[in-house]
Design brief:
single chain; two-stranded antiparallel sheet; two-stranded antiparallel ribbon
């Protein structure tokens, strides 16, 4: 095998926010929480474990038999990041955004008593989230709680989001952030494994394609060929 190239399709980003009862979210979250050092917990505003995050606790599943999340983090993921040549600054950004995805679910939006709007409870969560995103807390809250419309004359009109709308906006932010991280890591892997992929090959060049589908092994009837 001389080189490889992969791309993602139909990433199930909804699993970031909700899953069926008894299912885990993406393994990286549990590995991060189990393997992070005390200094990393402080730096990346991590809570004690998955039970302390609403996005992870809602399905009631935190562990998988025969999977040691802390060990997978230390001996699997961290060496893989190093092998891909991802530098310290990029790794810091990766960990910050992973924590931010989880912290999106901890924002406590309080509906206004008389008008259709919501404000974020001043419990420090919005400040931690803004720190992880490297943005101003007021700007972040405004971006989530306000929506902008374009009038027929081209002017911009801002309106407060309802409580349900601001919850949806927060979930969309978490899903979009995770999706962007996934695409970025895919590009990092492709750069590290491209070796001869960009060189011209003859007509007799051979290749193999592999389809990796989440939950593939759980099909009652498997009518697909995983090797194409």
């Amino acid at each position: 095998l001389e080189a490889s190239h992969m791309h993602g399709a139909l990433l199930e980003k909804t699993r970031v926010c909700c899953r069926a009862q008894g299912e885990r979210s993406f393994h990286i979250f549990y590995q991060f929480l189990a393997g992070a050092t005390e200094s990393q917990r402080s730096l990346y505003k991590l809570r004690l474990g998955p039970a302390n995050y609403s996005m992870l606790s809602s399905s009631g599943c935190f562990d998988v038999c025969n999977i040691n999340d802390a060990e997978e983090w230390r001996s699997g993921l961290l060496p893989a990041i190093k092998a891909l040549g991802i530098g310290t600054t990029s790794t810091d950004g990766l960990f910050s955004l992973l924590s931010a995805v989880l912290l999106c679910g901890e924002l406590n939006w309080v509906p206004h008593a008389t008008v259709q709007s919501s404000r974020c409870m001043a419990d420090g969560t919005i400040n931690d989230l803004a720190y992880l995103f490297s943005v101003d807390p007021n700007d972040l809250e405004e971006a989530l709680a306000l929506r902008e419309h374009t009038a027929p004359d081209g002017s911009k009109i801002s309106a407060m989001c309802t409580h349900s709308q601001v919850i949806m906006a927060t979930q969309a932010l978490a899903q979009a952030t995770y999706g962007a991280l996934f695409q970025w890591l895919t590009s990092c892997i492709n750069i590290a494994t491209k070796t001869l992929a960009s060189q011209p090959r003859g007509a007799d060049a051979r290749w193999v394609g592999i389809l990796d589908m989440f939950g593939f092994e759980a099909f009652q009837v498997n009518s697909l060929e995983q090797l194409i």
